[in-house]
Amino acid sequence: MTSVFVKQGVREPDLAIRLTSANKKKDDEVAYNFKTGLYEVVHENDPLLHLLTLPSRIIHKSEAPPTAITLPPVVQESSDSETEDCASIPHNEVEDLYSDVVSKEELARIDAQPNPFNFSERVSQTARLAKRNLSIQTEPPPSTAYSENVSLFDIYFAYKEDYTMVLRRELEMEKEKEKERERERGPPKPKQTLDPILVVEPQPHEEFGKVSLNLPGLHLAATHVERMINQNIYDDISQDFRYWEDGGDEFRPLEGSLLPLWKFHHDKSRFLIVADICWSPVYPDLFAAAYTAGDIGGPEGCGMLCLYTLKNPATPERVFHTPCGVLSLNFHPKHGSLVAAGWSDGTVVMYDVRSSTCPVIIPSSTTAGKHFLPVVQVRWMQTAPGEDPSFFSVALDGRLTQWTVHASSLHHTDILDFNIVDQLAANLPAHDRELLEGVATCMAFRPDDESVLLVGVNTGVVFQCSTTSATHSIFQYPAHTSPVRRVMWNAHYHKVFLSCSVDWTIKIWLQFSRSPLVVLDLGGAVAGATWSPYSSSVFVAVTDEGRVHVYDLFLRRCRAMCVQSLVQRRRIAATCVAFNPFHPIILVGGEK
Hints:
Number of helices: 9
Distance between the termini: 119 Å
CATH class of the domain at 418-592: Mainly Beta
Radius of gyration: 50 Å
CATH architecture of the domain at 418-592: 7 Propeller
Shape: elongated
Number of strands: 30
Strand order of the largest sheet: 5-6-7-8
């Protein structure tokens, strides 16, 4: 290549660049084809080699021959600038320019091919598939036209006939089941004689004409429908029960509030008092309430034992009427259908509430260790598999008795008797025998060791004794100056317990320490207190005036986290409180 320097203002001459190949092409030369993925033999008439040997096609306007005719620009839809420049050159001029190098047929073939130097992406070379809609047509299902005139009498008789057939089938099935039961039972056994005061009154069966409405399975179906209706009615409360959070807690540090949920009542409990409440340790939504006509030691009257469920707040699941008031009750820790109750006349009763129509009721009798005064508290004991269930009772007659449940009777064993000081304190010095004076009002077993028992008396003293030792080693806590209403061990730290009394105070104790750890004054007689099942420092207490106090000793010991009244307008006395072992909710019982 030669370069020529010229003076300024003089146009540079055009340079002709010619690319040639000095090497002769071999016969076995191949090239890789990316479209087919194969190696192909290179032919001599490859358009790429001919284009490389062509001279420049650029012609200045000043050097254009005079015979050239300037044509108007041809509008083409192309983005290639080189194609637009070449389109402006007349076709005859191109043939004259390359006539000595390429023939007309070869030039036409080259012009017909696309520009090999124009780059285009592979995506633009892919053919687009047009979308097609595929529709499926099926034959419509066969239909028939039916018409009939039906009157009200036809509908009535049709329903009546169907109802009669259903009753007949149910009656036949019930007879077959009864025959199978008689075959399994064998010969009839003599009926057991129970205390006449515990005979359950048969409920009269409603009848419509001559057809009895006592259908098997009707009660269960009605119960399920009633639960569904009540859950729809109380849907907003059910949502708050699981997911409620008070937004005002962000603006009130270390302050809380209680959200009222449901009120459980019975039609015949309007003039009764809830003496005790107990949650079921097996079923999270089940609890029992004991009703009495008056205070402990007051005039006696009829009472009730009701079982409620959170699934149906409107009516109780089970109702047991008693000739006297029920003062205490307790669920079995493993068997959710066993309930022990204490009456105001001193009777101790064991209920098996699995059946609503034929419950098993086993009472204590006067000839088998019945208490002579009201039973203020009952508690089940943990028993090994295969052993008979057992529970304890404490009454105002001063006796602490253990009851063992047999097939149809209760066997008693007296553990303590506060009225017989000489027998209980035979191994104690003479100046220590006065420690056993008083009447027991409450008791509590240590969770990890049920042989350790706390007993609160009406003198304000709390005794700790052992139920397995023959000497009944006793430790005295000078707790209160008025009757002790409740003692309870901590569920997480088993060496700590609390006691509440009528003297307005709640005291937290450490085992074998005669001075309390914490003393709290609630400003009123404390009706009950209970520890939280999910925290070792939280407990709830309720006063006779109907105020609920929630304490968290980890955050603050001098003042309650929350103090809330049960009823704002009128005054209702509270008697007991219970903490749910599964959910952060409490139950408070009282008047009306």
